[in-house]
C-alpha cells in the first residue's frame, strides 16, 4: 500500500473557486464606507471651512466626520442623531434648528473642538484620534477603533482630493 494522490474532483475545484471568489469579493467590498460617501460632502465645503476656522478644527476632519456620519445627506436620521453631522438633540439650544445644514455643521465643529479640548488640545504630530473617538462615543477613551479608522480613512481620501 502506497500513498496515492487524490485529486479534488470537479466538486472540490468548484468549491475552491467559490471560496476564492467570495474572498476576493469581500476584499473588494472592504473599502471603508466613508470612501464611498465623500462625494456628497463637497457641496457643503464652504460651510465646513467656515466652521473649521471658527472652531480651530481642520476642515478636512469635519468633512471626514460628515462623510462617515451622513455622506452629506442633510436629512440623515440615525436613531436620535440628526442631520449632516448626526448630532443628538441635546446638543442644540432652544431655537436652534438641527436640520439646518449650517447650524448642524457648526455644532459638529463645536463638538469636535470640545472633544479635542478634553483630550488636552492638539499638538503637532498628533492625529486627532481621541477627538474622533469622543465625537462618536462621548469619551476620549471611547473604544471605537472602527469608527476612528473610517474617519481617518475618509480624511486621507479627502486630502488626496484637495480638502
UniProtKB/TrEMBL annotation:
It holds the Pfam family SLT. The keyword Cell membrane does not apply. Gene3D superfamilies: 1.10.530.10. It comes from the Bacteria. Residues 48-139 form the Transglycosylase SLT domain. The keyword Signal applies. InterPro entries: Lysozyme-like_dom_sf, Transglycosylase_SLT_dom_1. Transmembrane segments: none annotated. Keywords: Signal. CDD domains: LT-like (cd00254). Residues 1-35 form the signal peptide. This is Transglycosylase SLT domain-containing protein. The lineage of its organism: Bacteria, Pseudomonadati, Thermomicrobiota, Thermomicrobia, Sphaerobacterales.
Amino acid at each position: 500500500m502506497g500513498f496515492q494522490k487524490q485529486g479534488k474532483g470537479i466538486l472540490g475545484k468548484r468549491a475552491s473557486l467559490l471560496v476564492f471568489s467570495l474572498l476576493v469579493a469581500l476584499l473588494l467590498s472592504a473599502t471603508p464606507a466613508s470612501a464611498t460617501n465623500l462625494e456628497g460632502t463637497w457641496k457643503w465645503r464652504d460651510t465646513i471651512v467656515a466652521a473649521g476656522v471658527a472652531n480651530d478644527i481642520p476642515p478636512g476632519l469635519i468633512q471626514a466626520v460628515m462623510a462617515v456620519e451622513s455622506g452629506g445627506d442633510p436629512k440623515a436620521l440615525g436613531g436620535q442623531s440628526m442631520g449632516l453631522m448626526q448630532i443628538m438633540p441635546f446638543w442644540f439650544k432652544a431655537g436652534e434648528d438641527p436640520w439646518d445644514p449650517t447650524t448642524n455643521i457648526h455644532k459638529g465643529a463645536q463638538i469636535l473642538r470640545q472633544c479635542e479640548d478634553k483630550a488636552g488640545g492638539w499638538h503637532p504630530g498628533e492625529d486627532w484620534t481621541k477627538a474622533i473617538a469622543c465625537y462618536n462615543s462621548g469619551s476620549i477613551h471611547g473604544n471605537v477603533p472602527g469608527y476612528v479608522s473610517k474617519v481617518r480613512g475618509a480624511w486621507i481620501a479627502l486630502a488626496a482630493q484637495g480638502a
